[in-house]
Write the structure tokens for this entry.
Amino acid sequence: MIWEHLDKKLIKLHQEASSPGEVFEKLGECFIEEGYTKEDYVDALKEREAQFPTGLDINGFGVAIPHTDAMYVLRETEGIMTLKEPVRFTQMGSNDTPVDVKVVFMLAIENPQTHIKKLQQILRIIQDDKVLEKVYLAETQDDVINIIKQKEIEIGGETL
């Protein structure tokens, strides 16, 4: 289950950012500092986002799930950032449809075979806009972990 592996140092709440690139810099740098990814992880996030946008509109709630190829990852992990003000991302699968994102689930996936499974786990959690709203309003990292834990228990989450 995802909640079992969340590192509190990679959960950043009520952050200010003006662009996807700034989100990647703020949260991605934490991934680098904590030894989860290589030094060029943030640049790789920016390049991949330009080619394959990661914004999603979940019943009017904007979420992004940025990630890179495995070659930039040292240890697999996930990070979460909530934004004080929405940041405009591009809708996944489009070239120009905007999505005002309030919560970012950033991934560092080292095994390409588990890539789809990890995305499916996160999608099962974020399909519930009430869970997204709770994560967005959370005051502590522990609150975020508990919200995700409760949702995963409710949906019968799997361990990778």
Notes: The mean pLDDT is 92. The longest strand covers residues 77-90. The longest helix spans residues 112-126. Residues 33 and 131 are 29 Å apart (CA to CA).
